[in-house]
Write a structure and sequence with these properties.
The protein is of the alpha/beta class. The chain is built from 15 helices and 17 strands.
Length: 460
């Protein structure tokens, strides 16, 4: 902040300058794999916005030092935070950006003619530009601010629903989060849409042959995750989109996990809509973004009514603004958007391939430490999966395992992970999940393995 003005620097590099970076060094004892966080097939991978223009070196301890919360203890033990798939921790850069916005340059955005309004509007719209660059969108006008990934999906579903006819089909995969299931169920209930389910194979990969057979003349939307929050599976999104478009259907991609751990290049994917959420991307809660092609956004009617989303209002008529303003009724999440912009600016300084290799190496470290344990079952073993280790322990409930591990300072998640159809597919009533991020270390992986073995001892 200079002279009271909030300055949010753009991420390094521009859309035209992006070129894939070189993978950094993976953690000790692991095999380097520059494509570790990408989808299984070459055709489905997209260029890495974060690696383009980012740092070649990756120092996990330097990264970790930027997260104040990671220095605390839990139950007398160093915190081992392995719940990033639910919500990631926040670096100092984000904390400082939010403080600076509130302390030195805050007002409502747009239309204000005073200095604070202009400064805040500049920072708010700069954050929109940052999201566009991060996703490799062609224009910031393709980015709609929402209050999270869930609202972004609901926005699309509500708009699509207004043109659906009874019998129109929506394809959803069995591995979806409830946020990418329930809005489509609501269209089934209210508009007579038919939900069809893309099956998941035993290893956690999507059954692409079955998917191709499900597509038909009545398919209107395919809703699929970029990366499963339970299995870690990275789906071949470009292939999914290609087949759907050939059948005349549009594709919505849930990128709430994939935007963090994979390569969220929307041009390479070719998807119609892509959603992300800020709190998993090291940013604040209550902020997300919807990307859409110009055509896909124009096809949607307004989601909510109020200020900002109109062109004009009279007693007998109303005309609506063009996207993205059409979908941003009322005062937006200003501070949260600025915080997300700061998070992506910070995250984009790291080489994407190096981060992916680091996270993949942590997953392999855990697998090595736990190999040969006949009481442990990993759920999801897809090739090239993201760094999520979901498991069950024979004779122990997932909640009990998670609570006991917390005694050792290890934070994991337990339950159905907002993915009940997937749990049903694998015959589970619950499971435990450890999810890794760029700030986790070899010591974290080892502490997790040790705590899990100790937790299991309570039940034998």
């Amino acid at each position: 902040m200079a002279d009271g003005k909030l300055v949010i620097a753009p991420p390094p590099g521009s859309a035209a300058e992006r070129g894939r970076g070189t993978a950094g060094t993976a953690v000790e004892g692991a095999t380097s794999n520059a494509a570790a966080g990408s989808a299984p097939t070459t055709a489905s991978r997209s260029p890495s916005p974060a690696s383009r223009g980012g740092s070649v070196d990756f120092d996990v301890h330097a990264v970790r030092a930027q997260f104040p919360i990671l220095s605390r203890q839990v139950n007398g033990k160093p915190l081992v935070y392995l719940d990033s798939a639910a919500s990631a921790q926040k670096p100092r850069a984000v904390i400082d950006a939010l403080t600076a916005a509130m302390e030195g340059s805050y007002a409502n955005v747009h239309r204000g003619l005073h200095t604070l309004a202009n400064e805040t509007t500049e920072a708010f719209e700069a954050a929109r530009e940052t999201v566009a660059r991060y996703l490799n969108a062609t224009s910031a006008d393709q980015i709609v601010w929402t209050r999270g990934g869930t609202e972004a999906i609901n926005l699309v579903a509500a708009g699509v629903g207004q043109s659906l006819q009874p019998g129109d089909e929506i394809l959803v995969s069995q591995m979806e989060h409830h946020s990418n299931i329930v809005p489509w169920h609501m269209l089934r209930e209210r508009h007579g849409a038919v939900l069809k389910w893309i099956p998941v194979k035993d290893d956690g990969t999507l059954d692409m042959e079955a998917y191709a057979e499900l597509l038909g003349p009545k398919t209107r939307v395919v809703a699929v995750t970029h990366m499963s929050n339970v299995l870690g599976t990275l789906n071949p999104v470009a292939d999914i989109v290609r087949l759907a478009h050939a059948a005349g259907a549009r594709v919505l991609v849930d990128g709430c996990q994939g935007a963090v751990h994979a390569d969220p290049d929307v041009q390479a994917m070719g998807c119609d809509w892509y959603v992300l959420t800020g709190h998993k991307l090291f940013g604040p809660t209550a902020i997300g973004a919807l990307y859409g092609t110009a055509e896909a956004l124009e096809s949607l009617p307004p989601y909510q009514g109020g200020g900002e989303m109109i062109q004009s209002v009279s007693e007998d008529r109303v005309t609506y603004a063009k996207p993205p303003q059409r979908f941003e009724a009322g005062t937006p999440p200003i501070l949260e958007a600025i915080g997300l912009g700061a998070a992506l600016t910070w995250y984009s300084t790291y080489d994407r391939a190096a981060v992916q290799a680091h996270e993949a190496a942590l997953l392999e470290r855990v697998r090595e430490r736990l190999s040969g344990l006949n009481w442990l079952t990993e759920i999801g073993t897809a090739p090239g999966k993201g760094a999520i280790f979901t498991f069950t322990v024979d004779g122990a409930h997932a909640h009990d395992i998670a609570q006991i591990m917390d005694r050792y300072g290890v934070a994991v998640r337990a339950g159905l992970h907002c993915a009940e159809p997937l749990a049903t597919r694998f015959g589970l009533t619950s499971s435990t999940r450890a999810s890794f991020a760029l700030y986790n270390t070899v010591e974290d992986a080892d502490a997790f393995a040790a705590a899990l073995i100790k937790a299991r001892e309570f039940f034998v």
